[in-house]
């Protein structure tokens, strides 16, 4: 591809990204473009909120991606089966939620923190399986509604169901629309790729405890960005780090970093 062809392709990619989010399957250009945007956000060391800004960018890309061809889903306000289990999120999503809580609870922050801590105390030492079997809620759930809905993590956005019956029955096989599942996975990898480029690890943390940690110290985001392991005592989601697809995910992240810097991407979806 010569330089003018590459310029035209880049323009098409950007137009697609801003209008429709990321393309899936054989379209990795938009995902690489998102990766570059996230890397650029993290590049700005003067921005003490660049981790939560990464979450905002990724979540907006997810919403654009599913908005065009969104399949009908059974999820509705007040339906919270999927919030009654072990839920994990990336550090960027956690700081995005914490920032949102600080914004909307300026007048009653201490009371909200007390509420979250009391809820989190109930789940602190409960195993991942027991948490699921006991249907224990996320600390951010209030009256069966997500109290941070606008800032909820990408994982929560992606976990939709076309049928409420399997959710009610606590079935293992929830019918999550393919578009939601794949968009969530792809965008998560763009986030992990940007974090990897900047030297951060791919770790997902139990959300209630991690939010508590992020809220208890107003400088937690800055300290984490500076390399401090502020989540060292928080339960890790082993399904993310120990997943047999982890190697594939790592290759995808490397390919996205290459694509972000206009290098050939050595990765084929489904390979
Ligand atoms: S953050 Fe919101 S959507 Fe996600 S599990 Fe918690 S209450 Fe549910």
Task: Summarize the helices and strands and which ones pair or pack.
Elements: H1 3-20, H2 29-43, H3 50-68, E1 88-89, H4 91-104, H5 109-121, H6 128-133, E2 141-142, E3 145-146, H7 154-158, H8 164-168, H9 178-197, E4 205-206, H10 207-216, H11 220-225, H12 238-241, H13 246-260
Antiparallel strand pairs: 1-4, 2-3
Describe this structure in words.
With 271 residues, the chain is mainly α. It has one domain (3-260). The chain is 55% helix and 3% strand. The protein is built from 13 helices and four strands. It has helices at 3-20, 29-43, 50-68, 91-104, 109-121, 128-133, 154-158, 164-168, 178-197, 207-216, 220-225, 238-241, 246-260, and strands spanning 88-89, 141-142, 145-146, 205-206. α4 packs across α10 (207-216). The longest helix has 20 residues, at 178-197. The radius of gyration is 19 Å and the shape is globular. The chain starts with a helix and ends in an 11-residue tail after the last helix. Bound molecules: iron/sulfur cluster. Iron/sulfur cluster (SF4) is lined by residues 83, 87, 138, 140-141, 146, 148, 152, 156, 207.
Structural class: mainly alpha
Task: State the low-pLDDT regions, or none.
Answer: none
| Helical content band | 55-70%
**Arithmetic mean of pLDDT:** 92
Distance linking N and C termini? 24 Å
Helix tally?
Answer: 13
Main sheet attributes: strand count, strand direction, barrel closure: 2 strands, antiparallel
Domain unit count: 1
Number of strands: 4
Please write the string of helix (H) and strand (E) elements: HHHEHHHEEHHHEHHHH
Strand-residue proportion = under 5%
Q: What topology, given as strand order, has the largest sheet?
A: 1-4
Give me the Rg, rounded.
Answer: 19 Å
What is bound: which ligands? iron/sulfur cluster
Shape: globular
């Amino acid at each position: 591809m010569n330089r003018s062809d590459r310029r035209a392709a880049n323009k098409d990619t950007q137009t697609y990204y801003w209008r429709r989010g990321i393309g899936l399957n054989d379209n990795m250009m938009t995902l690489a473009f998102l990766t570059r945007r996230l890397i650029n956000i993290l590049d700005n060391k003067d921005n003490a909120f660049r981790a939560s800004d990464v979450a905002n960018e990724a979540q907006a890309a997810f919403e654009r991606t599913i908005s065009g061809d969104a399949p009908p889903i059974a999820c509705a306000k007040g339906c919270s089966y999927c919030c009654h289990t072990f839920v994990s999120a990336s550090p960027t999503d956690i700081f995005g939620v914490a920032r949102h809580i600080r914004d909307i609870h300026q007048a009653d922050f201490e009371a909200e923190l007390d509420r979250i801590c009391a809820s989190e105390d109930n789940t602190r030492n409960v195993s991942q399986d027991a948490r699921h079997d006991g249907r224990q809620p996320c600390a951010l759930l209030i009256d069966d509604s997500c109290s941070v809905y606008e800032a909820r993590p990408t994982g929560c956005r992606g976990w939709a169901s076309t049928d409420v019956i399997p959710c009610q029955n606590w079935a293992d096989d929830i019918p999550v629309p393919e578009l939601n599942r794949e968009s969530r996975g792809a965008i998560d990898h763009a986030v992990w790729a940007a974090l990897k480029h900047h030297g951060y690890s791919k770790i997902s943390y139990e959300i209630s405890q991690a939010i508590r940690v992020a809220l208890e110290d107003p400088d937690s985001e800055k300290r984490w960005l500076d390399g401090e392991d502020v989540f060292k005592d928080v339960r890790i989601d082993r399904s993310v780090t120990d997943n047999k697809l982890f190697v594939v995910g790592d290759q995808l992240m490397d390919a996205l970093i290459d694509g972000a810097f206009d290098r050939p991407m050595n990765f084929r979806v489904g390979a």
